[in-house]
Write a structure and sequence with these properties.
The complex is a heterodimer. By secondary structure, chain A is mainly beta. Chain A contains no helices and 9 strands. In chain A, 35% of the residues are buried. Chain B has strands at residues 3-7, 10-12, 18-25, 34-39, 45-51, 58-60, 68-73, 78-83, 92-99, 106-109, 113-117.
Chain lengths: 110, 119
């Protein structure tokens, strides 16, 4: 149950695009289509932004998109807005009803 | 509207026990698996435990296996986490989380209950 690997921080200016990577193994990210991404603002509960690698829940802007290649999943946020500044976590199903999270990435909107 | 309300958090001494509860509303509780996820102060998210809708399948993180027990009461729309032999590293916000549909993602999150383990 080792944590997935995410960059500690990324940044971008309003209107730009950023991509956050999430690297796991064949036992989690590479082995299942159940990768999800969560946004967490300070003092708030996490909110799902992407599930099943690339699906967006209703209400999530289409500026948020997800993808996966091999053992690495990615979250791309296009047209950055000030309110996108938050911590982002990836998560993958890891078999036997267990889950594993990434360490989190702090997104700064410059 | 889906609502998940955790209760039972607080300050507890190392080695003692605590039981968290989560009351769910706004959805058919016994149609969904449920999860507990925790977040230590200034730290990232850590999956703790999951339970299927019938309680027939449960799973635990290595860090809590043998000390924590997850359970649910579908008649009361409630999820529980019995935490025994608590350690300082168990200090965290504990979130009750509803499953997406079929063990595919962690959908709705409660606001969390703070558990502080200290003497």
């Amino acid at each position: 149950q080792s944590a997935l690997t995410q960059p500690r921080s990324v940044s971008g200016s309003p209107g730009q695009s950023v991509t956050i990577s999430c690297t796991g193994t064949r036992s989690d990210v590479g082995g299942y289509k159940y990768v999800s991404w969560y946004q967490q603002h300070p003092g708030k509960a996490p909110k799902v932004m992407i599930y099943d690698v690339s699906k967006r829940p209703s209400g999530v802007p289409d500026r948020f998109s997800g993808s996966k290649s091999g053992n690495t999943a990615s979250l791309t946020i296009s047209g950055l807005q000030a309110e996108d500044e938050a911590e982002y976590y990836c998560c993958s199903y890891a078999g036997s009803y267990s889950w594993v999270f990434g360490g989190g990435t702090k997104l700064t909107v410059l | 509207e889906v609502q998940l309300v955790e209760s039972g958090g607080g300050l507890v001494q190392p080695g003692r026990s605590l039981r968290l509860s989560c009351t769910a509303s706004g959805f058919t509780f016994d149609d969904y698996a449920m999860h507990w996820v925790r977040q230590g102060p200034g730290k990232g998210l850590e999956w703790v435990s999951s339970i299927s809708w019938t309680s027939g399948s449960v799973a635990y993180a290595d860090s809590v296996r043998g000390r924590f027990t997850i359970s649910r009461d579908n008649a009361k729309n409630s999820l529980y986490l019995q935490m025994d032999s608590l350690r300082g590293e168990d200090t965290a916000f504990y979130y009750c989380v509803k499953d997406g549909a079929s063990w595919n993602f962690l959908d709705y999150w409660g606001q969390g209950a703070l558990v502080t383990v200290a003497s």
